Amino acid sequence: MQGTSPFMAIATLQKKKVLQNPAHDLESIYYVLLYFCLKYTRPGVTRPLKAIDDWFMQVSFEWIGLKKKYQLENIDSLLEQLEPFFADLSGCLRELWDVLFEPEYTPKGHVWRDLDQCVGTHDGMLHILEATLLGLPDVDPVAASPPLTKSLKPPLARKSSTKSLKPPLTKPNSRKQSSTRKKLSSSRQAPSAPVPSSSQQPPSRRSLSLRKRRAQDSPPREDSDSGVQPVGRSRERAKRVRSNTKRA
After folding, report:
1. Out of 34, 56, 184, 235, which residue is the most buried by the measure of CB atoms under 10 Å away?
2. pTM as predicted
């Protein structure tokens, strides 16, 4: 604690060469206790307080010592800023400050303290701390708020940063563009099934009946060797065959 600038004794901050003594350690313990009572509103919850936050600025030790000396000259103004949770410790902090720096009264009744010379003792501080501990109630008059718990909600899914690979749709600016788009759309369509020609179509019932009737009407053809008459020949050819057979 003695080597941490916000909690160092005022004498060690302002003087480069000073002989450290036990009183400086007691003064540092007091600053730690004062810090917790002023900075925290309840266990685990802090608040911004300029009077204490100035002690943690990244400046020189001399500047921090002058700042603490100026603020602690009127200790009552700091103790009035205690939160209700630590209000019952205001008397203890004021008595400890009197042990560390004995008050001196001017003829006009003003209190003066030599903050460059700490005169506190271990016995004096222990006596005040033990008396305060015995006087504290078993149950705190101001209930502390429950500790903050993290939310168990699942994290929101992040949107993918990859862009779509589809080309942007653009309106045709001329007739040529519209015609090319129509050609592309027609080429992409599935080809239709080929329509069979008239020669490949199966014969209907009417055509079959006509063929059958013609075959019945035509006379049979007689073969020259076996005498069998072929079916489906024309009448003229049949007459010709008969005449040839008679002549022979």
Report:
1. 34
2. 0.55
